Amino acid sequence: MKKRFSSIRYVFIHSHLSGLIITTVTLLAVLLSVYVLFEPEWLTAVSIFLFISTYIILGLIIALYTGFTSSGNLKSRLDSLSVLITQFSNGNYLSSVHFEEEDEVTRIGNELNELGKKLQDQVKSLQRMADEKSEFAKSAHKSAVIEERQRLARDLHDAVSQQLFALTMMSEAAVKQFESHPSLAKEQMSEAASVALQAQTEMRALLLHLRPVHLSGDPLPTGVRKLIKELQKRSQIDFHIEMEDELVLSDATEEHVFRIIQEALSNILRHSQASLVNLDIKKRKNELFVHIRDNGRGFDVTRNSDKKTSYGLKTMHERSEELGGTLKLRSNIGEGTYIDIRIPC
C-alpha cells in the first residue's frame, strides 16, 4: 500500500491537494479578516462557511481529476524507461525508446539509447577478446610444455646425470682398490651408495613432476590424497593429513592450491631429508588455510642459495598471489620447515 501511494500518479494528486489546502487557508484568512475589520452586511459567518465548503469540494474533485489525468503520460514514459533498463539488465542491449516530446524525460531516454549501443559494442569487444584469449591460452600452453621439458632436462643434467657420473667414478675406483686396499674400497662403496640414494630421491621428485599437475576433474581433497598415496609408494616419509572432504572451491583455486602443495612436497622429497610431513587444509569463513610442515634438516631462509629450491618457492609465492592470498615460510637449520598459506575464497 505504501509503495502504491508513492507512485508518480499519486505524487501529482498530492501536489494538487497541497495547493488546494494552501489556497483554501489563504481565502479563509482573507474572508475572516474582511469580516472582522469591516463587517459588511453581505459577508456573514454562514456565507463564509458555505463558500469555503463549496470551494473545498469543487477543488478536491478538480485536484483528483487533474492530478490523475496529467500524470498519465509521464507515468507511461517512465514505465517505458523502466522496461528499457530491465532489458539492459537482462543483456538485451538492442532495445530502445522513442518519445515525441522535447523535455528532460526524452533526454534521459536518448541517453539510455546511447548507453545501450555502447554496452552492445562492449559485448562484441569482450567476445572478441575471449576468442583471442582462447588462442593465446593455447599458445601459452604449448610454451609452458616446452619450458617444463627444458626445466626437467636441466634438472636431469644438473642433478641426476652428475650424480650418476660420480657414482660411476666411485664404483670404478672401488673396484681398482678392492684387492690392494679393501678398507678404502669399502669406504668408496659407502659413498657410492649415498650418491645412489640421492640420485634415487632426485628421480622420484622428477617423476612426481612428470605426473599430471592438474586434478583431472577430481576435487582438491581427492587429488591431494592420490598425490600423497603416490608419494608413500616412492619414499619412506610418513604423511599425516588433516583435510575437510567437503571443501567447495572454484576450479582455478583448486588447481593453484594443488600445484602449490605438489611443489612443496617435491621440495621436501628432494632437499629436506624428512621422515614426517604434516599437511593441514581447512576452510574457515571465507578463507582457505593450508599448513605444511616437515621435520627435515631445514635451511637458512636468508642465505638460501639453492637455485632449484628458490625457483620452486618463487613459483609457490606467485601462485598464492595470483589467488589474492599470502604464503609465509619459516625454517631454521635442524628445525624443519613450515609453510602457511592463506587464500580468500
Main features:
single chain, 345 residues, alpha+beta, Heat Shock Protein 90, 5-stranded mixed sheet, 5 strands
Q: Averaging pLDDT over every residue, what do you get?
A: 80
Q: Using DSSP, what is the number of strands?
A: 5
Elements, N to C (H/E): HHHHHEHEEHEE
Count of alpha/pi helices: 7
- Shape from CA axes? elongated
Can you tell me the CATH topology of the domain at 217-345?
A: Heat Shock Protein 90
How are strands sequenced across the largest beta sheet?
A: 1-2-3-5-4
| CATH class annotation of the domain at 217-345 | Alpha Beta
Major sheet description: 5 strands, mixed
Name the CATH superfamily assignment of the domain at 217-345.
Histidine kinase-like ATPase, C-terminal domain
Alpha carbon gap, first and last residue:
42 Å
The oligomeric state is single chain
Short description, anyone?
The chain has seven helices and five strands.
Polypeptide structure, described:
There is one protein chain. This protein is of the alpha+beta class and 345 residues long. Among the domains are: 4-92, no CATH class; 217-345, Heat Shock Protein 90 (2-Layer Sandwich), CATH 3.30.565.10. 67% of the residues lie in helices and 11% in strands. The protein is built from 7 helices and 5 strands, in the order αααααβαββαββ. It has helices spanning 8-37, 45-89, 104-177, 182-210, 220-234, 251-272, 307-322, and strands at 238-243, 276-284, 287-294, 326-331, 337-344. A 5-stranded mixed beta sheet has the order 1-2-3-5-4, covered by helices on one side. Helix 3 (104-177) runs antiparallel to helix 4 and helix 5 (220-234) packs parallel to helix 6. It starts with 7 loop residues before the first helix and ends with a strand.
